[in-house]
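thought: fold this chain, then report.
action: predict
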Amino acid sequence: MYIELKNINKSYGSFKASDNVGFGIEKGKLVALLGPSGSGKTTILRMIAGLERPDSGEIIIDDKVVNDVPASERGIGFVFQSYALFRYMTVYDNIAFGLTVRKQNKKEIKERVTELIKLIGLEGFEKRYPSQLSGGQRQRVAFARALAPNPRVLLLDEPFAAIDAKVRSELRKWLRDMIHQLGVTGIFVTHDQDEAIEVSDEIIVTNQGRIEQTGTPSEIYINPTTAFTSAFFGATSELTDYKAFENFDDIGEYDKAIIRPEFVKITKKNEQQKYKSSAAEGTVTDLQFRGNSFELTVDCNNSRFSARRGLDEPAVEIGEKVDVFIFRIFITQGNTVTLLKNNAVREETVII
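observation:
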């Protein structure tokens, strides 16, 4: 592993920001630290950067323990949420700042800055000031400034939070492509699940100072391994009693029954429904247009949960009675998760 954290602990008074944290990151990967506010992800990032010191444990970069290495000597670039550009410096001078501080010769600085300006797609903007740039352009300059000294690791603290939705989507792909093109190892903090899924090679889920789960976006989404991850990932809802729905195994005592919209099939009463005999009756209580689908809120068997309908499916209305079929459920018992599949689907699969 190129970056390793071993048994990292960090407290601020009685608050434990990192509780025996440990994980490894391969060289050249772009990894997301994903979790709710206060889960410890920014503290981890700042300790890797050398801006905070762990109370115990080891931070290792390229096989070297860096706990006592100053931040300026760790070979790390840092991109802040607020850009942190120098207002009275041009684009060129902002990007060149770190190289100038290192007293590199002007020819090398010019070559490097010119290369980066081309990389971020801002040729012709060299003499502009931050106030003359859009939010997306300012963030690109911040990326370039962090990359100028050729860091071994690029750290990003919620880098897209201050940017509007359309530009944010464009920058996500740009960042991923750039990181892979340069071969830099990148770690970014986010609380946005879509951002983590879209951008990262791997996700590290944090909660209350601990690491809940690590893996690829698809691994964590499809196979959550802890109660927290199963409820945190996706637009989840909780069933009051999953045993009220037909064809699910009874596993005894449990804590929560969690579903996502894609686990549910909603059909009108007069529609063909493959699993109609196993469906329950529900009532649509809310309806929201989401661009590529409609999001429904449904009351069924004393539970309220979300489901989706495609734009090409017959429209449903608020107050309408519908058939509700649930394909699968995450059941939590303590901190463990069990995926229950509807036996009506299982039986059909066996027959086929």
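thought: worth noting. The chain is about 25% helix and 35% strand.
final: tokens above.
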